[in-house]
Design a protein that fits this description.
- The chain is mostly helical.
- It has one domain (3-264).
- It has twelve helices and no strands.
- The longest helix has 32 residues, at 233-264.
- The radius of gyration is 20 Å and the shape is globular.
- The model is unreliable at 1-9 (pLDDT under 50).
Length: 265
């Protein structure tokens, strides 16, 4: 054994996983924007357009009875994390189909093909936060101490999104209609989650039921940075429990279908 081997021991499996994950994530981001003139701005253009449309409809056309002022900040604080969740889950439906050759020819853990999608979309989300800050400054929104929940919301959303991705990605290989079903479900979740409205706007009769949608608690933590009244411990607690269950189910589904997926792709 050489001196180099003694001084620099072989990387642990966890270290190799992290390195492979980072390399694949960087590659994914570079490929995504390599032929784009606007690059980074495309990651924020979609939520900005959507926020602009909803702001116009609910402030200029209809007399809005939901949300808080400034409404554009209220929208963006939930719309930006939604774009992360929506984009990562949508891409997960094609995670194994697009990278079939690499998946078959490499020995890195197959979970990495879902996790790198969540990470790349998460980086885009982080990169879009200056836009939220700019709107908050110009709209006069006040940053509150509840902003500390922002980090918890990011962690909770990442775990939830990975869990959903690990369920969807392998099952799409066997049930191709699941890709379209996932898109429909995401469309339903958009309106079933407090994005254009807030947690406080939920009817009391639906409050407990809505709490089982983990996005409700997650979005309430994001919004609490500017709108403390949106912070709801009940939805956060129940949502955290559901998030853990979804993640465990995702690992079980992935583990039990991994060999079959490799045969199918």
């Amino acid at each position: 054994m050489s001196a180099i081997d003694v001084v620099r021991p072989e990387r642990s499996p966890i270290a190799r996983y992290r390195r492979s994950l980072w390399l694949l994530t960087v590659r994914d981001l570079r490929v995504r924007y390599s032929t784009s003139a606007l690059g980074y701005f495309w990651s924020i253009l979609d939520p900005l357009v959507m926020a602009g449309i909803y702001w116009f409809v609910f402030t200029q056309v209809f007399h809005r009875g939901v949300g808080n002022e400034p409404y554009i900040v209220f929208l963006l604080s939930a719309l930006l994390p939604w774009m992360w969740f929506n984009g990562a889950v949508s891409d997960s439906t094609r995670a194994y189909i697009r990278e079939a050759k690499l998946i078959r020819s490499t020995k890195i853990p197959r979970t990495i093909w879902v996790v790198r999608l969540v990470l790349s979309k998460g980086i885009e989300f982080i990169a879009s936060l200056p836009v939220l800050a700019i709107f908050a400054i110009f709209a006069g929104a006040t940053l509150n101490w509840e902003a500390v929940f922002f980090l918890l919301a990011i962690v909770m959303q990442a775990v939830l999104t990975v869990g959903v991705g690990l369920i969807v990605a392998p099952l799409v290989i066997f049930f191709r209609d699941l890709e379209r079903a996932t898109k429909l479900t995401l469309r339903f979740l958009f309106y079933a989650s407090p994005i254009i409205y807030g947690v406080t706007d939920l009817p009391p009769s639906l409050h407990l039921l809505a709490s089982f949608n983990p996005l409700v608690g997650i979005l309430s933590m994001y919004r609490a940075a500017f709108f403390p009244e949106q912070l709801d411990p009940l939805t956060i607690g129940i949502g955290a429990g559901v998030t853990v269950v979804v993640f465990v189910i995702g690992l079980l589904v992935f583990t039990r279908t991994e060999r079959a997926v490799l045969k199918e792709i």
